[in-house]
Amino acid sequence: MKIKFCGAAKEVTGSTHLLILENxxxxxxxxxxxxxxxxxxxNFNDNWGFIPSELDFxxxxxxxxxxxxxxxxxxxxxxxxxxxxxxxxxxxxVIMLTDSAKxxxxxxxxxxxxxxxxxxxxxxxxxxxxxQKVEPLYREEDVIKLIPQxxxxxxxxxxxxxxxxxxxLRDAGHILGSANxxxxxxxxxxxxxxxxxGDIGRPNRPILRDPIPMPEMDFVISESTYGxxxxxxxPNEELKLLEIIKxxxxxxxxxxxxPAFSLGRTQELVYIxxxxxxxxxxxxxxxxxxxxxxxxxxxxxxxHPECFDEDLHNYMLTDSNxxxxxxxxxxxKAEESKQLNEFIGPCVIISASGMGNAGRIRHHLFNNISNPxxxxxxxxxxxxxxxGGIIRSGADSLKLFGERLPIHAxxxxxxxFSAHGDRNEMFDFLKNQIDSAKNLFLVHGQIxxxxxxxxxxxxxxxxxxxxxxxxxxxxx
Length: 476
Ligand SMILES: [Zn+2]
Prior knowledge:
20% strand
């Protein structure tokens, strides 16, 4: 059999890998969207590197858009097979993709307007036609069409897909429903085991179970995002968050603005505050979660306790709703979100996106960042050019909605919330493969991180570690 790396090769986004069996059958692992703006990837989302209608089935590791974001396009382009994933991934993928479709549609309208402006000014680019109509990559209706193809597979049990292929999904501990993928494929009278890590989570995180390594595999495809990084040892998050809330909201009587991803980060923050509230330690100030996608994601969390770790199960014996406490309000409607601008007095506002480059959080930053009484808490990686990245770099001003604003709010950073394992955590997850893996392919990482992680793996005893290029094929 062969593997073709159709995405996330020397990149951290657009995860898409194709297995081609000897008899010509084709299995796709993940179907991610490229979300950046680098010119060399301009056409990535339109180019599959295979014919979607020829795929037999696909396996989805988890519901992050860089792993599932092109599924509606795959179906639109002719794929009609089953999409195997966990129960929680199915539920999350539907809400994430619906949100993504709205963004695609809005982007297309925006791009159309830009094109028409260039038409009026007769300033076309080389590849543009005067009659061009900008179409979104997919629409909400395309998401609805794929739902019947999403096929749930429970964790931890080998599942027979057909005569040749058996599938095992184990908890990746990365986001709700995330899995690593083990395949036992019968070919030429023997069984070849192929493992795909998906994204590797971290041990000892709130809410989710720890990552469970794959059984020993003949070939492994592994992510390598933090292949050259050690996460700082996690501080007492509860205590640190509490101190920040007290400083901003109690001592300074200000507002604490937290840009946070709707899926994962928001639920972790709410759960930590829920625990503090139950213990009577959280100051009595209003807490708002202002993001419809976060509300939908939290609803899915509540429906999938099979993904919770033991701590959370124990906690739920005394508090049946770990994502709701006195003083917490979820805000869905845009009018209510706008009313927060008028709100006087201390409060905490958690809103998306996590990097501050889209969504309602931009309005909260715009309204609050210049007041020295307020605080902004950054809880994860932000690309350098995004508002979150600019704020965490210590800049003294920020441009938002065309206006340059001085940053007088106090900036706090908590990096311990990462959902990706660092190099040691990834190594712990992979080390049982040292003797069995004939080749370990590193994907989903920048080249410096990949090269550093490859050296670490080879030194530890792995016989072969390959960093594939985009669209490269390898024999297994
Ligand atoms: Zn992920």
